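Sharing a chain and its predicted structure for anyone who wants a worked example. Both blocks are below, sequence first, tokens second.
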Amino acid sequence: MAGNSFGQIFKVLTFGESHSPYVGVVIDGLKPNLEINLDEIQKELDRRKPGQSEITTQRKESDKIQIISGIFEGKTTGTPICILIKNEDTKPSDYENIKNIFRPGHGGYTFLKKYGIYDYRGGGRISGRETVSRVVAGAIAKQLLNARGIKVLAYTKKIGNIEAAEFNESEIEKNVVRTPDSEAAKKMIELINQTKNEGDSIGGIVEVKVAGLGAGYGEPVFDKLEADLAKALMSIGSVRGFEIGVGFKCAEMKGSECNDEFRINPKTNEIETITNNSGGIQGGISNGAEIIFRIAVKPTSSISKTQKSVTIDGKEVEFNIKGRHDPCICPRIVPVAEAMTALVLIDHILMQEQIKSSVNTDEMKFKELELIDLQMLLLMKKRLDLIREVSDSIQEESNYSYVSINQLKDSWIQNSKELGLDDDLSENIFKLLSKIR
């Protein structure tokens, strides 16, 4: 199966299924001796894990990380990092009654058509359980971003028709729906519980903000920063839409309204945009403004309401889904959205640092050339001084002087040949030096 890896420099490979013994991740491309805070990784997993509240699935997983390789005494070793998370609370029996039925909204039918086999237990590889591995990798990426002064923040902006009207960052982790508006949070929770009691589910919108990323990150044409962000966020199973900046509203705007005009910040004397309709990215490259985008999260597919479907052998049926499922996945999507955003950003940052490193290498080479030229000039001066000393002690036209100059020339030519230098060039340089008195 292709499509299990992500990133060009910060490379991530995830593995495992919903009801397999373990899920995990392999991370490659990190330099040695980078400090990794394992508690921070666990903290991010705790934000994503099931069973957090009455509005999430009641599957109980501790989601404790097991470091297999790549981290020693809190630092990267430079070798691939492998981290495992055990699946502790699997109940495959919940799916026995529907193992031959294609669940609406799930990938069972498409997987079977593609591979000829499908793990019906909780969705297998395409279960939301797979996002555990993403959050682990994203937690490491976030640490590298934090060290560079870059912050990634996601939150629930809307659930159903209830939208956060206020933005108070300190409120996000204080309520179970992870919204920055405490009053909206109450209404969201009420709506989710009502929907849950009806045997249904509901979707919403998660917004992501990135602060501290300077201008110049992203690759034009096919690897635009917003294009990679869109792919990363759309790869999350429940995400069905992506928009950046003003998003689809730009279709209703005029150019004079949509364009982000430039100015010089009077405090920093740096170039900045007056508005941020582009969401912090222009031409596929960050412009230094806050990056802001939103994702549309669909209602959870697994609901307890009676639904119509078809069995593997082509019979139409009505059925009910048992098991433990989120009536709204938005609160648990928040840390996953942050993780995928962090993975994109750190990959582009590492690519840009390689470019800067290449430029710095060229600068170092020019400095080395300057040093060599200075050394050559010093040697030329020393040679001139010696010639003057010899000229003072003997006659220039004497046989001794003539023989000495020829000996120097022969030695010069022989040495230049051994060094692989051009004969004519070497001889011309010697003639030029010989004329200097």
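Comments welcome. The chain has nine helices and 18 strands.
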